[in-house]
Amino acid sequence: MKKYLELILLLAVFAAINAVEPVKTDGQKPVEQKETVIKLGHVCYKSIAFQAEQFTKEKKYDEALKLFNDAKTKPEYAAHVANIYSCIASINNETKKYDENIKLWNEGHEKGIVFGIDPKMKEYQPYLKIKGFKEAAKKDMILKTEQAKNPVPAQECGNEKETK
Tens of pLDDT along 7-40? Predict the structure, then answer.
């Protein structure tokens, strides 16, 4: 039954992408909405997020991580990069891959992503003894403060707005 649902979802995404008609502008060459949708990664990202969520519910964490790790390297998912990193961190936390999260946080910090790391929170207690955690938490706080002073503009993504 699950395979049928996955197949139906895949077909629905494919149909949605292919159903978009070209938009004619004032005497100019028609603009392909389909290309715009694909370039933004909006429809495709939601599909990836849905599939990864299903894998996570089934405790197939490696499959979910593979989907997100592939997506984080592709420019068409740039509008979703903060969400992708947060999802990977959540899966790493659930699977107790704390070292991986410290690497991920440092990589995300280089891209300006704030994770909300607070060593006082219960969920971060396992990290306290791991090398590099205090530095990552400090960097996260610095980025959070900088972004509060200089907010990152929202990125358009389809009809939604997303922020870093």
Answer: 566 555 555 555 544 544 455 555 444 444 444 5
In a domain, 92, yes or no: yes
Task: Give me 152's structure tokens.
Answer: 């990152």
The reply to whether the predicted model has a pTM over 0.85 is: no
- Does some domain include residue 21? no
Cα–Cα distance for residue pair 100/45, rounded to 1 Å: 23
Structural domain boundaries enclosing 148: 2-16+32-162
Statement: residue 50 has pLDDT above 90: yes
| Tokens at 162, concatenated | 């997303």
Alpha-carbon span 128 to 134, nearest angstrom: 7
The C-alpha atoms of residue 143 and residue 17 are separated, in whole angstroms, by 37
Cβ–Cβ < 8 Å for 108, 98: no
How many domains does the structure of the chain reveal? 1
